[in-house]
Specification:
The protein has 504 residues and is an alpha+beta fold. The chain has three domains: 12-29 and 99-281 and 474-496, Alkaline Phosphatase, subunit A (3-Layer(aba) Sandwich), CATH 3.40.720; 45-96, no CATH class; 285-456, no CATH class. Helix content is 28%, strand content 23%. The protein has helices at residues 114-122, 143-150, 172-177, 197-202, 204-222, 233-241, 243-264, 289-295, 328-335, 384-392, 404-411, 419-428, 450-456, 468-471, 488-496, and strands at 12-15, 24-27, 45-48, 54-58, 68-72, 78-84, 89-93, 103-109, 133-136, 226-231, 268-274, 285-286, 299-300, 309-311, 320-325, 341-347, 353-357, 360-367, 370-377, 437-441, 445-446, 472-477, 485-487. It has an eight-stranded mixed β-sheet with strand order 13-14-15-20-16-17-18-19, with helices on both faces. Strands 10-8-11-22-9-23 form a six-stranded mixed β-sheet, sandwiched between helices. The longest helix has 22 residues, at 243-264. It is globular, with a radius of gyration of 24 Å.
């Protein structure tokens, strides 16, 4: 059931004709509502305070009088708030507020890359927060799998709204507009209705401001101890404007946090996180996957009957793809030869995973002792040097097994962070309808809808693949410092360790 706060705006609309070929997609522009209340981008006055701190003074209502200040300690973090009425000053020590007087606001931002938030924090932004944590998304790197993982709702339905359920291919726009794969919706208090997503992508900043305002108003009205809001607008800003768009979005969120602390007189804990990251390219080129596979001799269909039949979802514009087939091995070997496709993978009959690059092949196996990565040729995941080093350190068993936590630590900064565990879980744990072949696409390319690519225009940032920019989201909370790196599925538990219960 949709939240009562979901917006019923205009956006992607579908009308069905006979079969998938009769699907007509129309894009209608809707109007965004008013934007949020934000603090000014810079203080009106900065003055020294005791102990090496500084006071940042603001005029919050535009009457040319300084009525609010934040005391920034020598560590760069805000520790106290001051409210001036002209006759007296009220001081709020954030560390002295009783826990029972605080509420929690959780803001989930679509596609915001860790690297940009880390840079903003290092340059003096997000002064209420300790350093940001890098989160590693599941694969494929899409919103629904990530938030299903975050809220511990496994298995999810499928990678995206376009999938094969064993009987036939879904009508993806109907599934998408109905939120059929977004099983995490009941866990959040606000999200922008999928019917308005098209408008949000074509008119990014007004719609992002609209989302922030709805979250601000919803938090004020709800009275809930914990209020969770999700914004798609940051993804739109990044996709269409690149990292310049993300810089605008991050600045808005920072000012939003200052405004919320001001409005609540510090009786608030704020948690910010993204579902995943975003790459940064001049312009992403679409791979016409179904056309190329058809030219290779495969039959693209909506139902698997003969050995050469393929169901190939082409819905979102992302740097990953899924294929459903009864003959995964030859399909995976064929598709990895296509320009722009970096890796393919499929599940063998004995449950092992075969990973292919253009000139490499390896197998991933799992036993009670841990994972094994067995290279046939070429080392597609580029793990051999890392595994050799771990073996020398005695961190790999004689039979070649290693704990997944060991490889997470060793590959956190790798070209494919935590790839072994992520690939294994995609085929074995995450979905009711997993694909038969998975594809990771090189940065600079994307797969998916030709219609959406034409309607939206050139993409400057894409997500979906195993690469570090796409895979690395962020999290930070005023409740305390989180571990330096976390898998997305471990983030809620880490927040619970700081006193936050998100498993409602």
């Amino acid at each position: 059931m949709r939240s009562r706060m979901a917006i019923r705006g205009n956006g992607w609309v579908s009308a069905a004709g006979p079969g998938r070929a009769g699907l007509v997609c129309l894009l209608a522009m809707g109007c965004a509502g008013p934007g949020p209340t934000l603090l000014p981008a810079v203080p009106a006055k900065i003055e020294p305070a005791a102990g090496g701190a500084t006071l940042q003074w603001y005029d919050t209502n535009g009457d040319a009088r300084l009525d609010y200040a934040e005391e920034v300690g020598a560590d760069g973090r805000v520790g106290k708030l001051r409210y001036s009425t002209g006759k007296a000053i009220e001081e709020v020590d954030l560390r002295a507020i009783p826990p029972g007087e605080r509420r929690d606001l959780v803001l989930i931002l679509d596609s915001v890359p860790f690297a940009m938030v880390q840079q903003a924090w290092r340059h003096g932004g997000f002064q209420f927060f300790p350093r940001p944590t890098r989160t590693i998304a599941p694969f494929p790197v899409l919103t629904d799998p990530c938030l299903v993982d975050f809220f511990h709702l496994l298995p999810g339905v499928a990678i995206e709204s376009d999938y094969y359920d064993g009987k036939g291919q879904t009508r993806p726009y109907d599934v998408y507009l109905g939120g059929g794969v977004a099983v995490w919706h009941p866990r959040v208090d606000y999200w922008l209705s999928h019917t308005a997503h098209g408008s949000a992508y074509l008119d990014q900043l007004p719609w992002f401001d609209h989302e922030l305002r709805r979250i601000q108003d919803g938090f004020d009205r709800s009275g809930k101890t914990t209020f969770i809001g999700y914004c798609v607008g940051t993804s739109a800003l990044g996709a269409l404007r690149g990292w310049d768009g993300h810089a605008i979005g991050i600045s808005r969120v920072d000012r939003f946090c200052h405004a919320m602390m001001f409005r609540t007189r510090g009786r608030l804990r704020i948690t910010l996180l993204s579902d995943h990251g975003h790459n940064n390219v001049p312009a992403s080129r679409r791979i016409p996957l179904t056309d190329l596979l058809r030219e290779m001799g495969y039959r693209i269909t909506d139902r698997l009957q003969a050995p050469g039949d393929l169901v190939v979802p082409e819905f979102a514009m992302v740097s990953s793809a899924a294929i459903y087939t009864r003959t995964p091995a030859p399909v995976a070997r064929a598709v990895v030869q296509i320009e722009g496709i970096e890796l393919s993978a499929y599940r063998e009959a004995d449950d092992g995973i075969v990973v292919l690059s253009r000139d490499g092949e390896a197998r991933v196996r799992k036993s009670p002792g841990g994972y094994r990565y067995e290279v046939g040729m070429g080392d597609p995941l580029r793990l051999t040097p890392i595994l050799d080093r771990l073996k020398q350190q005695g961190r790999i068993e004689p039979d070649g097994c290693f704990a997944d936590a060991v490889l997470l630590e060793a590959t956190r900064d790798h070209i494919y962070p935590d790839a072994v565990d992520r690939l294994w879980r995609t085929f074995h744990e995450q979905f009711k309808h997993p694909p038969d072949v998975l594809i990771s696409v090189q940065d600079g390319y994307h797969c998916g809808s030709a219609f959406q690519t034409r309607a939206v225009g050139a993409l400057k940032a894409v997500h979906g693949n195993l690469g570090p920019l796409s895979s690395s989201g962020f999290a930070m909370t005023t409740a305390g410092e989180l571990p330096e790196v976390l898998r997305m599925r471990d983030l809620a538990d880490a927040l619970a360790g700081l006193g936050m219960d998100l498993q409602r």
